[in-house]
Amino acid sequence: MNIHPLFLQKNKPQKESQSKGGTKRKTPSNDEPQLKPAEMKRQHTPHQDQPLAERNRPTEWEDMIGQDALVGEEGILTKIVRRAEMNSENSRPFLPSIILWGPPGSGKTTVARLLGRKIPKSTFVQLSAVDCGLAKVREVMEKAANEKRLNTQRITILFVDEIHRFNKAQQDAFLPFVENGTVVLIGATTENPSFECNSALLSRCKVLTMKKLEDSDVERVLHRSVEKMKDITIDPSVIQQIAQIADGDARHALNMLETCIQLGEDQPEGNKLVGMSSLTSTLQRTGGDVDASLYWLGRMLVGGEDPLFIARRLVRFASESVNFILTKKTGLADPQALILATSGFQATQLIGMPECDVILSQVASYLALAPKSTAVYKACLAVKECVRSQPNLPVPLHICNAPTKMMKDLGYAKGYIYNPDHKGPVDQSYLPDAMIGHKFFHDDSADDTHK
């Protein structure tokens, strides 16, 4: 995919904000808990000197994208906030302790901060397990206990980012305070809580899973950010490329967008999107242009691009556009493409720059000359679309395991044909009944334009 010029016009750089006395504005320390919702709200007001991802952090439930099960109109957190607002005058607000589990950039911190703003009669305190010890935790707990004694109607919401960084013994320190209601704990983690969080703590918390954002969700985030910028126009194909590279991480996507804005005109050699798109476009060309592939690879390496980023994209390309081409005589026409690309990635990891340049050149040259096919990629897209439109088709009983007598009585594994016991393929369906006969993979090797 060729990427068009990024920008028609770029904003003027922002001047560093200063106070009346000429001193730089002081940024609040992460170690200073903000004990009043109003203060917390002011602290998170976006400024132009903050990263784009922070400036565009959602401030209302309606601004959240891709997490409707939690914060949509009928989402569980939306209902909790409504109930707390309705009963705020007569009772202490209800909010269970929560563990937010999801991939990077899915909105865990944003959800926690929104809860701190939306729940009435609440004090929001944010800590990070990366740079916070138990002494700081105990200090926050002591302040929360004092506030509870002074006003039994208020609650303290303690948000601990990267809570899995605390070992299980350290997590024990939260137990008595969560159990007696001194604090409502909101933990955020990218790791499986059942492995990384104390079982006693988990039993006192509700685990809410935040899903990985789809590429379309990330594109919406990017388009919304661009709309807020003055005199900036970005081609939609660039937005699409950023979303694909970000792989569901909205923060990473916004950081890449900001980098493109800052470097797109002044340092074109450093623009990974232009370079990578030109390289993959050249590799994809019918017949393969080795010289152009090597040129764009060299442009990226000389421009300072991370060689591992290039290697990862070549591995993806090897599977998406090369590897699976079926032929009647030999089966897979080029089954070595993915193996070579993966070996190239590992070798690049081992020796690094500048020696890895010849390794990447070897992989790029091989992929440029290899036969091309997007049959598997198209099949993957077709499967995803099918699963989205019919997500809960039942598994056929005859291919279900039957480890118990009750399951056998219910018909599990009944009529199953064990393939190794027969010569050649057996007549047996493995798809759900509603999908029998459906084809996802279509061999495009007969099309001469792919060879």
UniProtKB/TrEMBL annotation:
SUPFAM superfamilies, A to Z: P-loop containing nucleoside triphosphate hydrolases, post-AAA+ oligomerization domain-like
InterPro entries hit by this protein: AAA+_ATPase, AAA_ATPase_RarA/MGS1/WRNIP1, ATPase_AAA_core, DNA_pol3_clamp-load_cplx_C, MgsA_C, P-loop_NTPase
Transmembrane segments: none
Region (Disordered): 1-58
Coiled coil: none
One GO term describing the cellular component: nucleus
Pfam families, sorted: AAA, MgsA_C
Domain AAA+ ATPase stretches: 94-214
Molecular function per GO: ATP binding; ATP hydrolysis activity; DNA binding; enzyme activator activity; single-stranded DNA helicase activity
Family: Belongs to the AAA ATPase family. RarA/MGS1/WRNIP1 subfamily.
Protein name: ATPase
